[in-house]
Amino acid sequence: MCRPFVTNTDVDTKATRDRDDPYAAYRDDDEARFYRLMHRLFSEELIAIMDVLGDPPDLNNLDSDFWASREGAFRAGVIPLLHGLALRGTEALAPIKADPIPILWDEAVISEEALAWARTYGYDLIRQLEERTRKVVQEQVALFLETPGGSIGQLRSQLLPDFGPRRAQTIAVTETTRAYSEGMTLVHQQAIRAGIQMDRIWQTANDEKVCPICGPNHGKAEREWMQVGGPPPAHPNCRCWVTLEVGQ
């Protein structure tokens, strides 16, 4: 489900959510936190790229050490946030059509599992983000050098969209959904280890704003939606969620 993005942390987030969404009380705020982080990191990265490129720009200046330092900056911010949001997902234990199940795990253990996921997935996410960034920079610099008369300010303007708020917003919404979903997956795994059979149920707001990708999954158990893909997010800007239901 694609919902309007909210960056104002003073709003009543419960008013923007479906009443059945267990994350309703804080998800907008967490997306805003993710957005602010990504916006800052991309802004800093564009400044660093322009400083190092030089005038006229030389791609050789952006060597492996430069990109390694940028990936390090992203990892330092993104991985702890993913970890925290995955833990947030474990707190939203609100099974539908069932009595709440007891807490079955040691908090230290679940935190370690969430951190292991955040590190593994976070490294892959950042690598993909930086690969796209490098490709965009290479393409734009090549185009700039092929077009006489351009200024370094014009090059920066051409690069700006890939370091701007729209990209930061998409990442924030999508990856917050993913982290929450992973948290519920960790709960699901713990329940299974404890001998409790539970089904993961895909949830949407079930209204006219739900996209055609997610709409057919609403209310379905994982045995149905896992045939065509994993849990939310199903696409960029997806804000669906998963609940648990005691299996039959």
Question: Would you kindly provide a written description of the structure presented here, covering whatever features stand out?
Answer:
The chain has six helices and two strands. The protein has helices at 27-53, 64-91, 107-146, 152-159, 165-193, 222-225; strands at residues 198-203, 241-246. The chain has a two-stranded antiparallel sheet. Helix content is 55%, strand content 5%. The chain is elongated. Helix 3 runs antiparallel to helix 5. By secondary structure, it is mainly α. The chain has one domain.
Please state the average pLDDT score: 85
Number of strands: 2
Parts with pLDDT < 50 across at least 5 consecutive residues: 1-16, 94-100
Total helices: the number is 6
Using the alpha-carbon principal axes, give the shape. Answer: elongated
> What order do the SSEs take from the amino end to the carboxyl end, as H and E?
HHHHHEHE
Strand percentage: under 5%
Helix content: 40-55%
| C-alpha-based Rg, rounded | 21 Å
For the termini, the CA-CA separation is 28 Å
Overall domain count: 1
Strand order of the largest sheet: 1-2
The biggest beta sheet reads: 2 strands, antiparallel
Structural class: mainly alpha
